[in-house]
Amino acid sequence: MTKNRSKQRIQIFLEKKERAKLEEVLEETFFLGYPVFFRSNFMGRLVSLFEKDMLQLKGMMLMHVNERFIKDHFRNVGGEPEGKQPCNSWVAYLTSSPVIAMILEGKGAVNKVHDLTSNREKGQKNGIFWNFGGPTAYSSNTSSLAAEDIKRWFHEDKEKWLSESSSTDKLIFLRSNGVDGEPVGPWQMAYDLLKKNIFYADRSTVVVIKPRAFRERCVGRILSAVEDNSYGLRGLKLVKKADCPRSGGVWSDSDKSDDCAVAVAVDFLFPLFGETPDIMSIDFESGKYQIGSDYLYRSTDFWRDIQVFFPYGVTLWTDSTCQCLYGEMFEPSLIGLWEQTK
Length: 342
Fold this sequence. Notes:
Protein name: nucleoside-diphosphate kinase
Shape: globular
GO molecular function, one term: nucleoside diphosphate kinase activity
Helix content: 25-40%
Structural class: alpha+beta
InterPro entries: NDK-like_dom (IPR034907), NDK-like_dom_sf (IPR036850)
Number of strands: 16
Catalytic activity: a 2'-deoxyribonucleoside 5'-diphosphate + ATP = a 2'-deoxyribonucleoside 5'-triphosphate + ADP; a ribonucleoside 5'-diphosphate + ATP = a ribonucleoside 5'-triphosphate + ADP
Strand order of the largest sheet: 2-3-1-6
Largest sheet: 4 strands, antiparallel
Domain Nucleoside diphosphate kinase-like: 26-161
């Protein structure tokens, strides 16, 4: 009996030691927030939680996925989530609205993020990662799976995808022609739909959360302020200076090529800007916001900045099984949708 207890104690000690060792390793992990974060304007709150846990954003996209893509995802991670499923099925739910995909980096990131998202008790306590009897997010549970997930969700778009998608009746892109700012595209119905919708260029803008916010860990607070003071987000993408050389006003000369910013396409944004560049005062309780230009860039030319940060323009897609039109989003990538063309 004594020998067995000693073995158990040694085993527990070794497991704790191994876990402590893993927590000291700087690593990347993958996180997927389900549509509830987009629908509830909780994306800024989500980013703030990760910033508080000393996790760095290395990739982020608000994106649509089609049925084939999400089924492949479930197959690769070992099945659908446990817990109560929303809507008719998990597949239907995750394809109904945009999901938020992230690459997070930090010490012990895989275990830290997975513990947050998979622990029912913790998830219910923080009110983010478990809701209505089911999980609200997925995260990789091993380093090897994280690498696979990141490759699947964040690989480069292929040049042929745009031409393939443009020739199909399942995807439509309304892009600026660069002359008068009017969007162009093959579907008159979709064009008319967007013109009648409150979401359109004359009531929309592009804002960019600048690198200083990353250094001071207030990206989530600024994003929450944007969510609280608009009719909704229509595009979200983490960008790097090296990838957006034409984005004047976002980067300073001292910013490095791999410094990050967050580009956001916003529908009807109310004033948020402070009088001085370096002011950053956000009071959610009183609803008073003062964000200086050192932290937040606001576009003066909507279609120009859309072309820089969201080159596919407004993306709409159809589901041939029900003949519905989805989207009206500035997709940062075609990764989750391109197979819809087949």
